[in-house]
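Subject: for your reference before the review

Hello V.,

The reviewers asked for a structural picture of the protein, and I figured it would be easier to keep everything in one thread rather than splitting it across files. Below is the amino acid sequence we used in the manuscript, unchanged from the supplementary table.
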Amino acid sequence: MDYFLTEEQEAIRELAGDFAREKIAPVAAKYDETAEFPWPVVKEMAKGDFFRLWIPEEYDGMGGGVMDLTLVTEEFSKACGGIALALAGTALGTFPLLINGNDEQKKKYLPALASGEALAAFCLTEPAAGSDAGAIQTTAKLEGDYYTLNGTKHFITNGGVAKYYTVIALTNPARGTRGASAFIVEEGTEGLIFGKKENKMGIRASATSEVVFQDCKIPKENLLGREGQGFMVAMKTLDKSRPGVAAQALGIAQGAFDHAVEYARHRRQFGQSIASFQAIQFMLADMATQIEAARAVIYSVARMIDSGAKDFGKESAMSKVLAGDVAMKVTTDAVQIFGGYGYMKEYPVEKYMRDAKITQIYEGTNQIQRGVIAHHIIRESARHK
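And here is what came back from the structure prediction:
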C-alpha cells in the first residue's frame, strides 16, 4: 500500500532498510546466541545519524517525530528485534526529557544522545510493580541540594549500557502516584548499581538488567519538571513510545513473513513447491493482510502524535495490541510453513517467534492495553450523552 510518505521519510526508510540488510542481518544470529550487546552495530547506527531522528534541531537532532522513529524501528526489526532495541530503547529513555525537561537539561543531555555517544534507558518497572506501575516503591528524598534515591528497577532495556537513566521515584510516598517524580541519573553516579543481566527467551541482543539505587545522590537540578509530575511523565512517555513497540512487532512479523514466502517458493514436496498448495497460500494471504492492517494503524497513530494531538492514549494502545498479536500469529505461522526446519536454530524463523513474544508483554501487556482502550471507549461514550 502507498502510505504517502514524504520524500524525506522514503529516504529514511530506504537508508534504514539498507543498514538493516548490510549491518544487522549478518550478525543477528551471533548476537542472539551470545546475548552480547551489539556495540559495533550501535556505533554504526550513530555514524548513520539514526539517533538524531527524534531529537529537535536546536539540540543537534534532525527534528523528526514518532513517524520517523517508527519507520526506522520497523526496518531494523525486520533484521533483528533485539538489535533494533538499542535505538528504540534510547528513544524511550529520551522521551521523558523531551516531554518535561527544561532547556538547560535538554542542552546538557540531548546533544550526546543525538550523536549516539550516549544511550538512554527508562526506569519505571520494579519487581513488585509491573502492570501495576502505580505500585512503585523506589524513593527520592530531598536532602539539601541533592535527592537521595533508594530502590530497585527491574527488566530495564539498555540497563548497564546506557549513559543516562530517566527514573520514576516517589518523592511523597503518602500521595501514591501523585507523589511520584521524574529524574535523570547519569552513569557513574555513586550509588547507581547494575544488578543481574537477564537471560531472556528472545531479544537477546538487547541488554536487560536490574538498575539499583543505594543512597544514590543526584543534584536537585536533575528533577524533570516539578515534584509530583512523575507518573504523568511516565504515562505520556508510554503513550508516545507504544507505536515504536508496535513498529518493532511489525518489523519482526514482516521479516518472518519474507522468509516464509521465500522458503515456500523453493521448498518442494510431492513434486512441486509448497507455495502451490492452497493451504500454504491461504496462510500467506492471512499473514500479509494482518501485517498490512497493523502497518496502517501504526502509521496513522504515529502521524496523529506528530500532528500535535493532545489525547492519543486509546489509539496508541490499539497499535500495540494489534501489532503484538499479529507478530505472534505471523511468526508462529512462519515456523509452521518451514515445518521441522522452522524449529531449528540454523533457520531464522524460530528466532523471530521468540523475539515476537515480548511485544505482547512489555510497555504494558496487551491485556492491560485492552483495559486502557475500553476505559477510553466508555469514558467517551459517557461524555457524548
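For the response letter, the relevant points are probably these. The two ends are 38 Å apart (CA to CA). The domain at 121-229 is CATH 2.40.110.10 (Butyryl-CoA Dehydrogenase, subunit A; domain 2).

Happy to draft the paragraph if you're swamped.

O.
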